User: Fold these one by one.
Assistant:
Number 1:
Amino acid sequence: MLSPHLSDFCCIDPTERAKLIVVIDTEEEFDWSHDFSRQNTSVGSIRSIEKIQDLFDEYKIRPVYVVDYPVAFQSDGHRPLQEIYASGRCLIGAHLHPWVTPPFEEEISRRNSFPGNLPLSLEAAKLRSLGDLIGERFGSRPLIYKAGRYGIGANTADILEEQGYEVDLSVCPCMNYSPQDGPDFTKYQSLPYWFGKNDRLLEIPFTVGFVGWLRFWKDLYSLLLNFPFNQLHLGGVLARTGLLNRIWLSPEGYTLAENIALLRTLHRSGVRVFSFALHSPSIEPGNTPYVTSQTELERFFSQCRHFLDYFMGQFNGVPTTPLELKMTLPIGSGEVRAQVRGGPVSLHSLGIREGDFGLAGVQTASLQASGDVSLSADGSSFSFSGSGVSPFFLPRPTTLSRLLNALAPSTAGASA
Ligand SMILES: [Zn+2]
């Protein structure tokens, strides 16, 4: 998960259409300029979530709401999401803000706000309590993770694997949080890669990159952000002159023109999977520095719409979800072996819709798996010893469909 090798990166056919996943960090409103507090748990802005969901519906996008503990805990938080989830229009993942997630054993500090800095047992316990609560509220444990503050650490991959996760969205390329005791992603790129034992889990980094004439000299940018050069504010000068600009694929703090420039630059360099993200508190004015008034909110929604319009139109892209992507990506070289002990997980929570892969009864079907799996690299041969099967483990829909038909005939063959 940290420092992937070249062989871990997914092979993606460059002739494929660009794919977009949408991720909403769904969390309490807190003043980002203030210290972390356990008391900061208001989730009132979730009442407006349908407004942004309507926009995604228009573009047939099923976003991932990565929800944190206060959102899952309070009815103001989970109720509006339950309705969207029940109608199959979104996926639910987990987002760990340690300072508001029990057990509360650590002292509140900037260092401890990155979950990956906590002792293994505490990081695991917090993620477990978050996963349990999400399971209770939504009927299925989360399979997608995004660390609060992008704070993955040395133990995170093992914890995710142990708790049955499938995809991580925590990597924030080109960013360096080490001055705040967080991870350094300066050398990372916006390319999906496999990680964990047997490369079973998929990392889909947030899309962040450089545009401009000097983009191949990224080290310059890091240099300018550090003392004493940061005093000169040269980063802003470089951005304004178009020489070098670091851009996040987000309407928060970036313009539509910047988002499009990033898409085009990365696409030219071979990137085909894009991850667009925003924070739920931004959908009401006054909660984040990005949206401080009603006028700014309108501009924010309009920018999201124009971006999606561009991506699905002129850019010829298509929407996807992290789990859909995982199921269709070619696996790495060689045979894959893994121990599967997941579930029960509902097909619905995997983002599988009625009719996908020829399946019926998706709303009620769930699967449990326990055993050893091996799969050849081309997906042509598969073996499984144990009970049940984990469909999301499989990278190819054809294999998935065959397998479900063979092992779960009552699920796969049932008519609605
Ligand atoms: Zn967050």
Number 2:
Amino acid sequence: MKCRGEIIEVENKMAEMDVDQLDNSDRADSPATGLSAYDDRGHGHSFVKKTFHKPTYCHHCTDMLWGLIGQGLVCEVCNFVVHEKCLRTVVSACSSIAASLVRNPVAHCWSEPGQFKRKFCNVCRKRLEDSLAVRCEICEYYAHLDCHDFVVSDCKECAIYSPTITRASVVHYHHWREGNLPANSKCLACKKTCWSSECLAGMRCEWCGLTAHASCHRLLPAECNFGSLREIMLPSSCLSMPRMDLSVETMMGMSKKTSPNFTVTDRSARTISEDWSSSGDSRNDDTEERERRSPRERDTKDRDKDTESEIIRVFDGNASMKRRLYRTISVPKNAPAQAILEAALKTFHISDDPKNYYVAEASEFGERELDESKPIRAQLKTPDGKRPSIFLRYKESDPDKGHIKVYPGCLKVSSGHKNITVTSESTTEDIIRTALKKFGIDVHDSDPSRYRLIEVLLDKGVSERTLAHNDKPWELIKNCRKESLRQNQMTRYYLQQREDPHGPSISLFVGNLPTGLSQRQYEKILLDIVGKQNKWVRFDVIYYEYGALVLDFSSADKATRVFNILKDAVFDDKQLLVLLLPNIQPHMIPENTNPLLVFVNVKSGGCQGLNLITSFRKLLNPHQVFNLENGGPLPGLYVFRNVPYYKILACGGDGTVGWVLSCLDNVGQDAICQSPPLSILPLGTGNDLARVLRWGPGYTGGEDPLSYLRDVIDAEDIKLDRWTVIFHPNEKEQDDVKVAIANDTNSANTNEDTTTIFVMNNYFGIGIDADISLDFHQAREEKPDKFNSRLHNKKVYVQMSLRKMVNKHPCKELHRCIKLEVDGKLVELPPCEGIIILNILSWGSGANPWGPEKEDQFQKPTHYDGNLEVVGITGVVHMAQIHSGLRTGIRVAQGGHLRITLLTDLPVQVDGEPWIQPAGQVVVLRSALKATMLKKSKNKIRRRNTEPSIFFPENDGLKAQSPSDENSSGAL
Ligand SMILES: [Zn+2]
Ligand SMILES: [Zn+2]
Ligand SMILES: [Zn+2]
Ligand SMILES: [Zn+2]
Ligand SMILES: [Zn+2]
Ligand SMILES: [Zn+2]
């Protein structure tokens, strides 16, 4: 386990050089001639002295640089700015070597390109400001689109379970990320401020939120306990994700409209000859040039224009030349070729010894090596004023022999990577044997065919490829170097067991199929789409009412193929849905942990929903967070089916809560946890249930998602009565329309053709309030994508009913149109136009028609006492008065079993969903279905720390000291 949790391993790959030599370097200000100052402490920066002309801050200690000249140093590759006095303690790795420090590369989950305010780029350390940038949806990593090629693939490891680890042996470590700390973050080690609004500075753990200075973070214990969210965190050691050839974005169920690479691939259109013949100063060319230069170079460009400088295009290999992917450097015209070489290495973030490289001019006359000692301009064939192109090349010292680094991956060995000598004759199998020996794994004992060598490209998307046993890797490496040096640098070799630690079973969730078919019919539909050769091992489960099922596969290749076929497949004009699901290992869940399953209905809250998904994925394990747009609550409930105890957070309206509860009713029988307590983050309007449970009228976007999660931890379990409403129309009334309702199995179960059954959580209304709901309903039907309606399929029916009702007052004298029996006794109704039957004491967005406690024959109602309250409303005016709190409804009855006879067709609503119900019987009785809800705790004394960062319950001495602590707990 240790091998997986530990993130970095320092390599002394830099040539040794005394830092003091820097002080003698006066050539510092020109970017291309700076001394390559390699450092032996492993941070890898190429520092040069610099005089800053505007206020600048030290990225190490966050203080300002003072003095008029030569105040500090800056790294020529990554723009790290540092005081001279701080130089000796720098620990932040340069982006030129950061990738090589990553032990287990994990691809980030990239957002669409966009603009992110007040954030800094983790590659070039500059502000993102108005440039297009991407961010990781799982961790706090930001990069300019221009810097995207140089991102470090060190995202959070979210699913690391393997059968070799046990709960007792698991140690989780902090996952440090530099910069973009929440405002006012304090260093846990020295208690001083460690965030900065001026530069990329400070460290933050991606799991527990702990913050510290870069210089202080190594003093803190390495073990991470997930901070204040650990009671609801699903640790990565409890999860495994099959090893499949799919992007993280795909695995997280994020649909990508455009690839962030589009800016790069679009440029491949121009031919080389066009490029060479074009004038280097043409306007079109110039704008493209700007795009591809790193922001650091962009800053200096205008200044360069005035001086005698030259802009050169650098290609790092044949493949880049073919695709016209180059980076530009700016150097003085009389600079020696050696300086070009160093600048070229830096622009590609290659931190190797320059002696292993050379530069060659790439012109229409072919490729010609340049003499390192002579000035570049004199050697170039490209005419003055035109932009020269050069190749950066690797010098093969021995074309037949070299060595490769092999990493142990998740093998149980304590050592890091091993250098293995390879010749042009070595096969993959030879390398596996040598590596096994070097890692101390007995070769006789273990058959090399049980292992495989994997080539991993630590690109922005981390891709891997298994080498065939008779491949000759040295030839592959040499070819790769010719094609792209950068890609070669980013390639690694891992020794891995052939079996996937995830195990043989891979589950694909398939949704959007027709509902209510037989297993055989589903089988036929899917086989027709994916083909017989790709048949799954078994159906793990079929949700007939939802048209969804889970397919199990034993081979990752087959599962990948099926995934790719199904994601583009359409059946019955519906785009099928396919999701790859992680496996939870319940025995690995720590004691006292009740992982939180988060559902977000993005349709309820507009863009707030999307922001919440990103926030929760960052705060928790991203595999705990499900977007209801992808198959509703079923995929999440399926993933958690074996977890003995967990909680749910439903972000959405009351309709979303009802949706989650009804899915729980359906899958509950198969799940180990029968009734997980459910909390609500109310989105949109209405939210009566959320109000009653103290979660508030609606999320406005201003509240901190972290504090919501803490409230969920502190919330108390409370029962919610649920009610079955059975509508049984009189037989003669039956017509096509009613058959249509009966067939709508989404929300109602049918036993006889004409009887429909609903589960009611909040309230049930007959008459005027349902009538008005219908008006709203019609409005929402006009903009259906804005609403998430359980009765969506009844659209046609509702519209027909509306037409029928024009100019008709159905609710006048309602008391004459219905008969009400409560617990077997006929109740006399007062003159009214509507009655409401309440389970919770909030209706129509927070109104209370029952009213406050008073002396009468009724008991004080609750939503768990097994009783319903019936109130009457005399008309529209009365209803408006109830809404504004001026009056209450007329108390009619209280009881646990209601029978209502509708003498005519009447508008009704269940939990705010209205329709016209034909005359007949309606029975409301207590449902056997249970729901446990979470009620937000009133008691704020337990409210601990409003610091956005951290809380250590078992060590109060370490608690981040914030003066606002007492104030905030008192204020609320
Ligand atoms: Zn400093
Ligand atoms: Zn650097
Ligand atoms: Zn950048
Ligand atoms: Zn990430
Ligand atoms: Zn941590
Ligand atoms: Zn500190």
Number 3:
Amino acid sequence: MKKFHPECMEKTPCPLCCAEEEFLLHKFGDFCVVQCKKCNFVHLNPRLKEEYSIDFYKASDYFNDYDGNYFGYESQKRALKKTFKNLINKLKKNTLIGPRLLEIGVAYGFFLSEARPYFSYIAGTDYSQEALDKAKNYANELWLGGLDDIPEKIEAFDLIVLIGVLEHVYKPLEFLEKCKNSLKEEGNILISVPKFNSIWYKILRDKWPSFKIPEHIHYFTKDHLEEFSKEANLKIIKIFYHPHYFPFNVILSKLGINLKQKTYLNRIDMPFYDVMLTVVLKKIK
Ligand SMILES: [Zn+2]
């Protein structure tokens, strides 16, 4: 675990209910994953201050170390695209596809590349310029930065997508409210976060791969995500149960078995369920 200067760290009350009392669940170096005694929400405390974590996302090598080892984001391209294709089929089946799409945190544009045929206007953001360069073929407009860097006068969107984003966000409530302001009245927000109370967490405990420290600061269950949404005047209208694909060699590496990059096993993607909690939200009227 990387060491950080104490001045880069901060303590925080519960981001959901503001209570101060907490249980320690796991310790990773100087960072603790804690559970609020009042509302049970799980978060990182202490955590890195926001300005230092944003430096992480701006770094050109952020996606190269995507999986905490030598499997970069690019090497998981095919598996991720399969995952996203499946997700888009679910959106299509539920008639949640509208003409204008916004994705916050586009990474290399793997989701956008699958979404491209179904939307007439696609926009997105990312903190990494390198990521935007890779994603640029799949979008009409991309902005460097986050939600605050979207031009104010932009027309509202039919669908806003946050995949693997909310667990990084320091003020989830404010963030959801801002998303809502960029959403059409009848629009939808798709949120996908690592599922905290999943079978994988229960089995793997502190080896759970979604303990990506120090970047993942919030760990959502469906109930807690619902509470944040309600506070932001949004409601969950749909939960998607969908597979998340991983290349076989990534799974082996998690078990401590490292194969050479170029074996035929590299070409096999395995579907796992209960990895992500994926929901669709609508404005409460
Ligand atoms: Zn709480």
Number 4:
Amino acid sequence: MSNIQKKTDVILIGAGIMSATLGTLLKELAPDWEIKVFEKLPVAGNESSNEWNNAGTGHAALCELNYTPEKSDGSVDITKAIKINEQFHLSKQFWSYLVKRNLIRNPKDFIMPIPHMSFVQGEKNVAFLKKRFEALSNIPLFEGMEFSDDPATLQEWFPLIMEGRTVNEPIAATKIDSGTDVNFGALTRMLFEHLQKQHVEIHYKHHVKDITRASDGSWSVKVHDLDSGQIETHTAKFVFIGAGGGSLPLLQKTGIPEAKHIGGFPVSGLFMVCKNPDVIAKHHAKVYGKAKVGAPPMSVPHLDTRYIENQKTLLFGPFAGFSPKFLKTGSYFDLIRSVKPDNVLTMLAAGVKEMALTKYLIQQVLLSNEQRMEELREFIPTANSADWDIVVAGQRVQVIKDTKEGGKGTLQFGTEVVTAADGSVAALLGASPGASTVVHVMLEVLEKCFPQQMNEWRRKITEMIPSYGVSLADNPQLLQEIQKSTEQTLGLVEKELVYS
Ligand SMILES: Cc1cc2nc3c(=O)[nH]c(=O)nc-3n(C[C@H](O)[C@H](O)[C@H](O)COP(=O)(O)OP(=O)(O)OC[C@H]3O[C@@H](n4cnc5c(N)ncnc54)[C@H](O)[C@@H]3O)c2cc1C
């Protein structure tokens, strides 16, 4: 075992979509900076970013009902939906920039147009969906959204869901054609290929074990080379912890005050995947339902047309579950090891508060295959068990922290960027809306960690991402230009959009 000391400008930990995007942005903004990546697995994009480990929805709040909660006065709050939609536009603009410059090729290999629909049953849910539709459909960001409670129209929109269905209660759906299916695994791999060409050193099978402050203020990263068994120490002025579920333990090792009082709660997932080509051919949409009472927002059931390995396929889920691992390839001790003196009270408070979630997860873990089929039959009444297999999805580590609104030990369902006060280290925690908003989240990392460089970089960022710093909701003209250009570049034009 030897100890090798190496210096660099930037270290990215983890080869998922987050590090891939930050590395690509930095190479455009500061091409001379030396960047190194350490990934414990032999390839890029094989944890949460892998196409089989996430649902591949380009989250733009076109169909996800949990982004538009009902307020106590009965109105629908669309604030979050607007925010997420605008953030997805940032991602599409950056991907278009990369395609136009030939930095990545064949957008069809990572993004495909697919209608996004919401589907509900029961009088109360139909009334909610109608209100949601009325609140969103006049906003240019959601232009083209349609609502219907007519079974004949729904039959046209999703024949597989209507096949064999007895309609004895109100049902309704919304549909919008500008939705997408994103293969985040393929995109991650493309971005790492691009980074390799840009002379970024990417070290696979290198497991980061520790991060400590060096005497000159830079960071020392201790890395285990899994092939040679050597322990290496690399130093950098800036470290990004993009280790997905593995980010929290590494952030804790930095010892920065901002990492205190934060815990993580892992939620695992399963999808059902259809293996009957005739069934797959009958469906062409991502159809999101409404979460069951007590279910966490990320467990909203959905029936998705997906494009994986150049094939159209059909997935249903996710079913939530519990595993103490923070990564699919993690350890059963991950959860227990993440409990530290500074976060133990936060974690215990969350345990007491989240009894309903615990109960829900236990119920989900105990589901038999036939019970899962019953849930699927709420979407596809004619579903046959012989047509469906189970695939294990990625782990999501939900952030637990103390908040003003929720008090001690509040479970968070969003993503969180935690940075040191001097901006020398940043970590990405949390799961949803996740990869879809990656460009927005990585721009936040740049703003927090490189405030001095931002003045110089702003022009280039705006060239790459024209709506950077601008509200698209307030600028329909810019929205129209951007939408037209990204749809053309990324090949997303399934149907001509008509603007009023
Ligand atoms: C079931 C499920 C469904 C989802 N659905 C969607 C969706 O529909 N749309 C969407 O936008 N998002 C979705 N997400 C979220 C999305 O997948 C994640 O936000 C995103 O992939 C996270 O990317 P990442 O780069 O942070 O992490 P990852 O892709 O997990 O990458 C982290 C990398 O770090 C490596 N690593 C970890 N620890 C170390 C270490 N100590 N040393 C070296 N390397 C290390 C890992 O091996 C891994 O390769 C979903 C997630 C799940 C689990």
